[in-house]
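In response to reviewer comment 3 from the previous cycle, which asked for concrete evidence that the modeling workflow produces usable outputs, we include below a single protein chain processed end to end. The sequence was submitted unchanged, and the resulting structure tokens are shown without manual editing.
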Amino acid sequence: MTNFDPRALADLVRRPIVTEKATILLEDNKYTFEVAPQATKPEIKAAIEALFEVKVVQVNTQKPPRKQRRMGRFVGYRPHYKRAIVTLAPGDSITLFPEV
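The workflow returned the following structure tokens.
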């Protein structure tokens, strides 16, 4: 098993993705995160396990295609990102919205 730098791992996971589909996946103990585009599955697994102190069973990744956007006569693209769907071991959970 490769050891990763804990400080670098924290930068890989950018934010949780909260959409209707991601909320439905929570019932199957699957959590969706936006991660850095260069992050690999072992790095994502190590980062989630280190940040949230849970056991990760599986990591699925997806790089959606870039979408073209227009501002007046200027054409550009939305920022590129990578989505990771992380399956946790039974009994583990992540609190996405802590009660204050």
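The beta strands are 13-16, 30-35, 56-62, 68-71, 74-77, 82-88. We consider this sufficient to address the reviewer's concern, and the full set will be provided in the supplementary archive.
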